[in-house]
């Protein structure tokens, strides 16, 4: 994942969480990346003030 792609995904995750009334993120990191049927899958670990 390029730095530009990572920033775009982080922004998307933040917007999703904000839409669910979660605004405080303590930790956000890609834990695993793999290919599944020709698609790249990124597994994110996100911890907020309301849990993981």
SSE series: HEE
The number of strands is: 2
Side by side, the strands of the main sheet go 1-2
Low-confidence stretches: none
Secondary-structure map:
Elements: H1 3-19, E1 25-36, E2 39-48
Antiparallel strand pairs: 1-2
Task: Provide structural commentary.
By secondary structure, the protein is α+β, with helices and mostly antiparallel strands. The chain has one domain. It has one helix and two strands. It has a two-stranded antiparallel ribbon. The longest helix is centred in the N-terminal third of the chain and has 17 residues.
Structure at a glance:
The chain is α+β, with helices and mostly antiparallel strands.
């Amino acid at each position: 994942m390029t730095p530009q792609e990572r920033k775009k995904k982080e922004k998307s995750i933040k917007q999703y969480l904000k839409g669910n009334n979660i605004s405080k993120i303590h930790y956000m990191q890609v834990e695993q990346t793999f290919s599944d049927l020709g698609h790249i899958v990124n597994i994110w670990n996100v911890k907020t003030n309301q849990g993981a």
